[in-house]
Amino acid sequence: MNKKIAMGMSTRYFVLLLLGLFDLYIFYKIFTPLTVYPVYFLLEALFGAELITKTQIASQGIIIELVEACIAGAAYYFLTILNMTTPMPRNKRAKSLIFLFSSFLVLNIIRIIVFSILYSNSFIYTDILHKSVWYFGSTILLIIVWFANVKIFHITNIPIYTDFRNLIDYIKRKKK
Question: Least packed by Cβ within 10 Å: which of 62, 73, 120, 149?
Answer without folding.
Answer: 62
